[in-house]
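Here is a typical sample entry:
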Amino acid sequence: MSNTPHWHGVFPAVTTQLKKDQSLDLPGTARHLEVLIKSGVTGLVMCGSLGENQALDPEEKRRVVQLAVEVADGRVTVLSGVAESSTALAIRYVKDCEKLGADGVMLMPAMLYKGDPRETTTYFRTVARNTGLPIMIYNNPLSYANDVTPEMFEELAGEKKFVALKESSGNVRRLTDLHNRVGGRFALFTGVDDLLLESAILGIDGWVAGTGIAFPEENQHLWELTRKQEWTKARELYRWFTPLLHLDVHSKFVQYIKLAMQECGLGSEWVRAPRLTLAGAERKQVLKIIHDGIASRPKLPKRKA
């Protein structure tokens, strides 16, 4: 690990495109990956929560990762989410990702069990010691019960394979606590779309973006404004974007974002059961948010070639 990566920039969490019969739509996923890469992202996160990791069969996940590696062809970093229910399954998966050519993994705590701090840190360390890949640790206590605190990250700082943190607790105070405890040790990413600007002001290296996969040009432009510290322009764009970014923090974020992709011509809304596509008043409400956003889409400056 002498060449430890310092990941930065936009690493969108990519959906796994499906057909109406719920089978994988690999060509559809590949087309979307090309759009994202051309927008200027620096990484791709496959098979995360938005990628419906836990609803995919083991072989399906591996096919999606292989596809992303092939499409990216070295142009951007390719990570896979790791959302397994046991240490043994997580080790098996990260070893397979390494064989498939992934550049790293985004490691969640073990699913289905709320571990105490000793169990959670032991899980992370054990997985890390069974792969040569660099790892982004994903903290999302609101969705997955386990909270990886700044104190725990400080404890994990000695393991060199941990190179980045995706902080999705929803508490932006955590970023300053992380800077104070482990500043510079990890690349800090936010994973909460509608806290992007607040997080950028406090200091982050990257953004695991959700809704932005339906609006990749606007998403990338917003990120670049934060890098230039052009806060007035960033604030104006953020105000347009925020109703759409709220779609990322709902329990049906997969359905909401896939519907947004469909309305923007970038994919389909089909999801893997037990999820169902939206219906009735909820569908109308979400469509209104999406269509209002499309109708008021800001004119962006031309990107430099």
In short: Strands lie at 9-10, 43-46, 77-82, 104-107, 135-139, 162-167, 187-190, 206-207. The CA atoms of residues 64 and 99 lie 14 Å apart. The chain has one domain: 9-295. The domain at 9-295 is CATH 3.20.20.70 (TIM Barrel).
